[in-house]
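Notes to self after the call with IL:
- keep both proteins in one doc
- input above output, always
- annotate only the second one for now

Protein 1:
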Amino acid sequence: TLRRMNSHNTVLLVQDTTQLNYSSQKQKGGVGPLHRDNHTGILLHPSIAVTPAGVCLGVMDGYHWYRTKLHHKSRGEKNRQNLRTPITEKESYRWIKGYKLANHVANLLPDTRIVSVADREGDIYDLYHESSVSIEEKQADWLIRAVKSTPLLNKKGK
């Protein structure tokens, strides 16, 4: 993958999370709840190298985990806990891991512009902070979709 990336001026390292649902495999171990207690599986967060034209160059990394339980808390309880929990202990740390990988690749391929791409889940303060304190010699650029797109017209065409 690095060899293919090296032959391009710009490479996007696109990261996102997907759920692998194993709910129908009742005996399967190493799984946990996904978005409901009765939906079980694992979460996978790969970083995939693609050209700006959309040609896939390969998979750079794939971080996976499973939840041991869902936390059924009110929004206020979640916010209070979120403030007390270090970023390295949160699921959202995966976005920073992906950006750190992009920085590492940028240093391995100094003649290739590396752009870390994340969706709006990656729009977290800690990622912006990481980009300002990175100790890597060369840093990757980043692109984060900060807002969900909305249609210009409602269903009635207004």
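Protein 2 (the one to annotate):
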Amino acid sequence: MTPSTPWPYPRWVAHRGAGKLAPENTMSAFRLGASFGYRMFECDAKLSSDGVLFLMHDADLKRTTNAQGTGSERSMGELAQLDAGNWHSRAYAGENLPTLEALARWCLANHYFLNVEIKPTPGQEEATGRACAALMNRIWPADRVQPLFTSFKPDSLRGAMAVAPHIPRGLLVDKLADATGDADLKMAQELGCQVLVLNHALWTAELVAKVHAAGMRCSSYTVNDDWAVQRLIDLGTDGIITDRVDLFSPAV
């Protein structure tokens, strides 16, 4: 049994733009992912000190820029001056940290789909969710397929739901709260989610059936091996987030 409501998103989602082939969460990464035929992109969104949403996974700047310290403690003007590419390879030296708005407008211009993982700096869970929703309310046309908001943080999803209840939401789960998955499914339902996004190893036939019976979709991260992909397809899951944009054809 699968949900009766049509699911408008592609099965395949490019993780942080192009996985590990380019510096994550940069425009070069998203363009590279698109060059492999991907039409849906996952990104991580945080708030700068002056309230601008920018793309970065870690709270600390050290791993993916030439700076250190908490990214959210800097203004967008300061963040925009950092090198977010040289850590990956010299070919990308000088790459900028993009804003979420810049990525969203690129997706709109190219008719791509967007999965925004609300990735708040600790203490900014609800505020980051609200800011993501307010941004999409302002720039995303009502007649286009809306972006998908996902988060590990229930408060971020609550914030997004309060500001933009029409934008679909998904709960990210790395470890099930109980052996059956019932607690996570219940939380996703309480948050009005349309999809449950699990660490791919957590899915079982029973849990897929349970989530589908609840009218929700089943998605997985981060899936980089052939055997894992085949298992998820055989289980009847709906979405696959991957780093291996060079290995898996999004047309499948």
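Annotation: The first strand starts at residue 12 and ends at 15. The chain has a mean pLDDT of 97.
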